[in-house]
Specification:
single chain, alpha/beta, five-stranded parallel sheet, about 40% helix, elongated, binds uracil
Length: about 375
């Protein structure tokens, strides 16, 4: 059943609803959203259908535009005063059922005064409203989506913390994987690692994290310490995490290649192929609800792994867009982001990266 109910009046806020839907569609399934008339089949008792839909929703949005209060029918009667007005019937049901109601102000509308409302709608004015402004629509919509997520029982938002025993099992499984990697002499990067006295870099962080970040390959700093993202890219990563109040120990960070390749170059196909089962195993052990691809290589690995239709898409098109996927252990989200190194080459990308990292707040 639909989980977000959007109550709106076409003449008042149709354009704003369309714009909001574009944002909601990036985070929820079409079936999660119920938008009145379109979803009512011919012949059905509309009051019955509306009440059932309202009863089934987790969140009830009321879009209030500049004509919400005054919109009238052909006979000049104010719609809100009519007993069978859809907007009124829906809101009355939501109030009666004590739903989580979010008034959403659009087109510079203000929250109506209780004296201007039919008695049964007056309690609505005690609800805190959110505003979607024209100039900051994307940011305002983002805040609203965070609030909606918090109000909805979500599958992936907050993976319940496992018990201490499972945590220790996951930690031990990662250690065992590292031990296996240390001895992996068949790796195309094994000889180089031995010669340079480098460490493999399996990853760092919480073995039971809900969020796993996957970069490209360790650099010199990382291979010398055996820890991912400790050089200049790591500084950018930490800066981004700080903007959303996350620390390394809240997440797990790893790479597609778990050893440093010689020189600064793209991963070779045989290197990617060798380490892929290790990366798959890391995901299988941690079972995150969200996997973040840092850069195009991690993005194409994940799109292919989860068989998503976006395969072949460019990072410049897909960055910052959470995608739904199905892992063997349940529903997950993938979030492609630019690699943090992008900021080292182009400072103007810092704001883009910050904005994209904000998307992770949906899952914290
Ligand atoms: N770049 C990466 O992709 N990973 C690291 O660990 C460091 C830099």
């Amino acid at each position: 059943m639909s989980r977000i109910f959007i109550n709106y009046r076409r003449v008042d806020s149709e354009g704003h609803v369309g714009r909001l839907m574009d944002h909601l569609a990036q985070h929820f399934q079409p079936d999660d959203i119920f938008m009145d008339i379109e979803s009512i089949k011919p012949g059905e008792d509309f009051i019955d259908t509306i009440e059932k839909a309202v009863a089934a929703c987790d969140v009830f949005l009321i879009m209030i535009g500049p004509h919400w209060l005054t919109a009238a029918d052909e006979a000049g009667r104010r719609r809100l005063d009519l007993w069978d007005d859809f907007v009124r019937v829906e809101i009355t049901a939501a109030l009666k059922l004590n739903k989580k109601i979010f008034p959403v102000l659009v087109g510079r509308a203000a929250m109506p005064h209780p004296d201007h409302l039919p008695e049964e709608l007056r309690p609505l004015t005690r609800r805190q409203a959110t505003e979607l402004t024209h100039t900051r629509f994307a940011q305002d919509a983002q805040k609203l989506i965070v609030a909606i997520r918090e109000a909805m029982p979500s599958q992936t938002k907050r993976k319940p913390r496992t018990d201490a025993e499972t945590y220790l099992q996951k930690e031990a499984a990662l250690k065992a994987l590292r031990a296996q990697l240390i001895d992996a002499s068949e790796s195309p990067l094994f000889e180089f690692r031995q010669k340079m006295r480098y460490f493999p870099v399996i990853g760092e962080g919480n073995p039971d994290a809900n969020i796993v970040l996957i970069g490209e390959s360790p650099g010199k700093n990382e291979a010398e310490k055996g820890v991912p993202f400790v050089g200049p890219s790591g500084e950018v990563l930490d800066e981004m995490l700080a903007t959303i109040n996350l620390k390394r120990q809240d997440i797990f960070v790893t790479n597609l290649l778990l050893d440093r390749p010689p020189e600064k170059r793209d991963p070779l196909p045989e290197e990617l192929a060798f380490y892929a089962p290790y990366v798959d195993r890391i995901i299988e052990i941690i079972q995150p609800g969200v996997i973040v691809a840092l850069g195009r290589f991690a993005m194409s690995y994940l799109l292919k792994k989860y068989n998503l239709p976006e395969q072949g898409g460019k990072i410049s098109d897909l960055h910052g867009r959470p995608l739904r996927a199905t892992a063997p252990y349940g529903a997950i989200h993938l979030l492609p982001l630019y690699h943090p190194a992008v900021v080292l080459y182009s400072a103007t990308q810092r704001e883009t990266l910050k904005r994209d990292f904000q998307k992770l707040t949906l899952f914290i």
